[in-house]
Amino acid sequence: MSSQTPIIHPLFHASTSTYQYLVADPTTLSAAIIDPVLDYDPSTNTVSTTSADAILDIVHNNKYTVTHLLETHAHADHLTAAYYLKTQLSNSPSPPRQICIGKRITTIQQRFAEKYGVDKKEWENVFDVLWEDGQEFNVGELKGKVIWLPGHTEDSCGYLFGENIFTGDSIFNPDVGSARCDFPGGDAEKLFQTSQTLLSFPENYKIYTGHDYPPGGNSGRTEPLPYTTVSEQQQQNKHLKAGTQKQDFVKWRTERDGMLGEPRLLHQALQVNIRGGRMPGDGFLKVPVKGLKL
Length: 294
Known about the structure:
Elements lengths: L6 E7 L4 E7 L5 E5 L2 E5 L4 E3 L1 H12 L3 E6 L8 E2 L1 H8 L8 E5 L2 H12 L12 E3 L4 E4 L2 E7 L8 E5 L2 E3 L21 H12 L6 E3 L18 E3 H7 L9 H12 L8 H8 L21
Parallel strand pairs: 3-6, 6-8, 8-9, 13-14
Antiparallel strand pairs: 1-2, 2-3, 4-5, 4-7, 10-11, 11-12, 12-13, 14-15
Keywords: Hydrolase
GO molecular function, one term: sulfur dioxygenase activity
Organism: Podospora fimiseda
């Protein structure tokens, strides 16, 4: 097996429809974890680590050494487990684990820290690495590359390992289509350009999505699917397949986003994720109240 052909473990988090990935170098058994999830129950405001602990089980069972915890963006629909995993992995001998994200995260942190009243000391320098666009790095002998993928959010990026692209929320499986662009800094035109970037890779490359929402019904697909090929996306993506005109996509995406409600865990997720996965120092998360004001 070539050192450029990674071992990939997809893990689906059903309650948030999120895909998490463990990517390992078969030669050195060094590994990276992409977009890990903390379990959060909004009915009891309880955080737990069942999903993250399942990742740790895979790490330990396969004797992997985790060197990188990779985030594709500041998620608005789940809480990141990156910091929890870093603390749990710090007890075993290995190089330091680094929590990594694209450099534009600082803009996102400043915006939402102001919105939620998060003190600067709780979010500044919480990430170990802020990637430059196109930056290359190594996980053991496995070469990785950062790809800026704006549109869903301005800080969105993906990771290329060999012939595998981990796209975050920049594109979804063909029968799901595309992600919303109505968050601050989101942009439907930029998302269209991002789709063209992704669909310009060789047809056999695999696109691993950050979420999946199996449509069921007449589609016949009821189980989550971690990836499709570039060719399948080109031919079948219901929003972005080859031949789609930018103006048509932008018009449809903008109108569609105008009808969407906010993600269920939006406020909790953003307050934790701009802290790099740390809980607030006072133990409280703020949720804005809408409607009647007395």
